Amino acid sequence: VYAIAVSPGGFPTEVSFDITDPFGTQAASVASGSSFSAGDTLATFLAVCTAPACADPISLGVTSIEDVSTDLYWTDVLGSTTNWEVEFGPAGFVQGTGTVVAATNDTVTAGALTASTSYDFYVRSDCGGGLFSAWVGPFTWTTAPCASADQCAYSIDLFDTFGDGWNGAEVSLVQAGSSVGTFGANFTTGTTFGPVSIDLCDSIMTYAIAVSPGGFPTEVFFDINNPFGVQVASFASGSSFAAGDTLATFLAVCTPPSCADPTALGAINVAANTADLFWNDFGTAVDWSVEYGPAGFVQGTGTGTLSTNDTLGISGLMPNTMYDFYVRANCGGPTSAWVGPFTFVTQCASFTAPYTYDFEVATVGHWDGVDNCWTIVSNNPGTTSSGGYSWEFRNTAQTTSGTGTGPDRDNTLAPA
User: Fold this and answer.
1) Residues 139 and 71 sit within 8 Å (Cβ to Cβ)
2) 13 — phi, psi (to 5°)?
3) Pick from 280, 270, 288: nearest CA to 348
4) Stated pTM of the model
5) What contacts 402, CB < 8 A, 6 or more positions away?
6) How far is CA 156 from CA 168, 169, 224, 301, in A?
7) How many CA atoms lie within 13 A of 108 on its CB side?
């Protein structure tokens, strides 16, 4: 059989391919890097449809990776092999010096391993009567830094300032010299992605190390949160980085605090004079202290109350007013830190006639929205004019651009 080029396409040096027979053996291949033209012979091989007496295993892999054991697996292309020989050892070991085990299934457990260590394994089919396939391998893997029972899930929130994803940027979390998970490769569009969950070992320093900076590293940033909702590390946008750079460090902790901080503060059912405040708890709190007041208030000067639920209704608020609130968990002795502020704005109230408004506190510019309980509709929205006619709030003197189109100046600044 001859593999002959019909067309080289636009970039022939980028082209490569493998040809595999029905029994999983690579029969021919073409590597990238060489140019070719139409009519060139790229590869030759003899097509064989008769199954070998003892077929090579294919598709080697590992699963259930622990600190001291790992399950090794492969695929039997014929589906009739019942015995295999497996040899494993430290990465780079010379065959004949590793640990050899006999397997009667296409999965076997490699035991007595060392944590955070790279290993290789090879496998061959044993077809009986002294007939074996070739050895296939090595397949390389790295054991975990700790047992899965000593791990907990950390979450990573990914962000991009431009809104087109991370453009190939990728970051790895490393413990005890081993990568335990990566994030970023699947963030291909938008400004946010995640959360991505990665299991980390308890009480081990963890390093967020760049695998690739991607096309626009200054757009990249992320937050890392522990299982109890607390942010333990972050990387800010605006700084360039290269592969291998350490972007953040933190100690992974899987033991819950004696009194976990509330998380995910929010407000719902916000009306002119009332609102329902809420937060998340990790099951350690008996009740919660809540303090609220006008936005920017100094803690200790606001309105304090105690809640026995993770939702609290408050009243007596002023309409169209911005408020902050803070919350702290009480755990029957220990307390969490105060968390906040979370800011919300109350709704507008109905006005009683007669009503006057002088617009001196209106937001300047052309724009659509609600401002001081007035609904503003503009055919030219934005904070600055971009052409065309529309209503606009100004706080500087303005001469008219035409006649008969409305007021030609602010009477309070340039009286007629």
Assistant:
1) no
2) -70, -15
3) 270
4) 0.67
5) none
6) 17, 15, 5, 36
7) 24
Q: What pLDDT was estimated at residue 415?
A: 39
CB 117 within 8 A of CB 143: yes
* 10: its two tokens: 């636009």
- How would you class 348 by CB atoms within 10 Å of its CB: exposed for 0-12, middle for 13-18, buried for 19 or more? middle
**Those residues with Cβ within 8 angstroms of residue 406's Cβ, 6 or more apart along the chain or in another chain:** none
Contact 159/166 with Cβ under 8 angstroms?
A: no
The Cα 221–Cα 238 span in angstroms is: 8
Q: What is the pLDDT of residue 416?
A: 36
For position 147, what pLDDT does the model report?
A: 95
8-state DSSP, 176: T
Separation between Cα atoms, residue 235 and residue 216, nearest integer Å: 15
The per-residue pLDDT for 406 is 53
CA distances for 410 relative to 41, 370, 395, angstroms = 82, 22, 8
Structure tokens at 209: 């190390």
Residue 405 confidence (pLDDT): 54
Residues in the chain: 416
- Listed residue (265, 286, 253) closest to 175, CA to CA: 253
From residue 253, alpha-carbon distances to 203, 227, 229, 247, 345 in Å are: 5, 9, 12, 19, 37
First to last CA, the chain: 95
* CA 250/CA 268 separation, integer angstroms: 34
**What token pair was written down for 134?**
């070739």
Separation CA 257–CA 252 (nearest Å):
13
Q: Which burial class, exposed, middle or buried, applies to 175 when counting CB atoms under 10 A from its CB (0-12, 13-18, 19+)?
A: buried
H helix or E strand, kind and range, residue 304:
strand 303-307
Name 125's Cβ contacts closer than 8 Å, sequence gap at least 6. 54, 55, 56, 57, 76, 81, 83, 84, 132, 133
Match 């890392």 to its residue by tokens.
224
Low pLDDT (below 70) residues in the chain: 365-369, 377-394, 396-416
Distance CA 220, CA 213 (A): 9
**The token pair that represents 192 in the structure block:** 């946010």
Distance of CA 64 to the CA centre of its chain: 23
And the tokens for 131?
Answer: 């007939």
Residues paired with 193 in a beta bridge: 158
